[in-house]
Write a structure and sequence with these properties.
Shape: rod-shaped
Order of helices and strands: HEEEHEEEEHHHEHEEHEEHHEE
Helix content: 40-55%
Number of strands: 14
Number of helices: 9
Number of domains: 3
Strand content: 15-25%
Structural class: alpha+beta
Largest sheet: 7 strands, antiparallel
Distance between the termini: 63 Å
Radius of gyration: 56 Å
Length: 494
Amino acid sequence: MRSVRARTALGATVVVAVALIGAGLAVLLVLRANLTDQAGLQAEVAAREVAGQLALDVPVHQLDLPDAEEHPVQVTDEDGRLVAVSEDLVAITGTGTDRVEPQASAVPTSTGTGTDDDGGGDRHGGEDRGDDDANVSIPARGEVSADDPDFTNGTATVDGGTADYRFASVSATTGAGVTLTVHAGAPLATEQKAVGSVRRAMLIGLPVMLLIVAAVTWLMTRRALRPVEGIRAEMSAITASEDLSRRVPEPGSRDEIARLARTTNETLTALEASVDRQRRFVADASHELRSPIASLRTQLEVGVAHPELLDVPGAVTDTVRLQALAADLLLLARLDAGERPGSTRLDMGAFVHEEVSQRIGDRIPVTASVPPSEPLEVTGSRSQLARIIGNLLDNAERHAESSVAVSVRTERGGVVVAVSDDGPGVPEPERERIFERFVRLDDARSRDEGGAGLGLAIARDVARRHQGTLTVTRSPEGGARFELRLPARPDPGR
């Protein structure tokens, strides 16, 4: 089954079916046990009534036995011989014997009468009364066993009808000391009828209940998954149209489906922004590459036609600019692909001194300020961190009027590299925009002077790859102050 609704409905139906079948079996077992115990109690009562008569020395042929159809009774002696049986009992099973005809058995019911057998005395004479009283013995009384009776199940046939019975066996001792066993039964028809009625009700009701459960589960699941189908349809339409500005419908509920819709829309928003940035990047890169390539081609074509007019320095400049732009684009592509920085240990103080010392021929000399003995170690890629420092110094050289300064310090567990100039600075509303790619605030500045607008974007991306930040504020001299913050490398000896 590929449908979630079908699997859910089937699963719920199976679970309910198992639960109902288990509960039904338990009910049937408990009901049968209770009704069987009630029948056993009735059989025990009937058996004890007959056993009580035997304990009172009632002769077995004079026992008052209950109706055979209600309580069939057998009385057996110690040898298992049948001495009494209910009238009209035709056949019986499940008791001590399956006989229904009494067998000859001498069962004395008293210990004696105390009469004078020689006939010499007058039993009614007054003078002999004292002797008669002395010779008369009082008959002993029997008893009924107080132990729990034995219960068995069997059948009995009375007047041609056979039924199931619960039999109880009770022992009784007569006054003569003879032990007899009374087997009395109680019909199980009530138990069988009740259990059969409950079983039929379950067999009829169980399928109906399962159908109801399956239908309700199907409808509820369909209703619950309706927003999911709407999300799926809209996503399919977005994929077909490639229109990332569309959004999936968000249900008004606060459940998981609503959160799924909101997350999907957030993903679409991020995807749309990423695609827009990619498109702008491709367009801007194409535009930036077109100018130096066109200039270089023009100079080469002029040189081919008129070698004396070939501007070799200009061609070299355009080639260098084209090479730098290609390197910037390649680095951005690697950063966007998730390239991780290296794990080289760097002393930022010595590293900044080295980078500043290599800048020969700058328009404005760079002043470096580094603490002499303070540990300033970080971990990262030497070439990428050099790119940050170089881009920040190039930007400061481009806008400074008379001074460019770089300093290194520690602050709250990190290393801060600050590059300041005394130029016009960056307006506060534009301080985040300058880190976007191909952004130049001075539109009147030529590309040769202002660059392609990738230096600061590359610097911030590299800083983020090193778990750092790059921000811009106002310097004390009135220009721009760029601060690079990198996590300091822990001191292994501390």
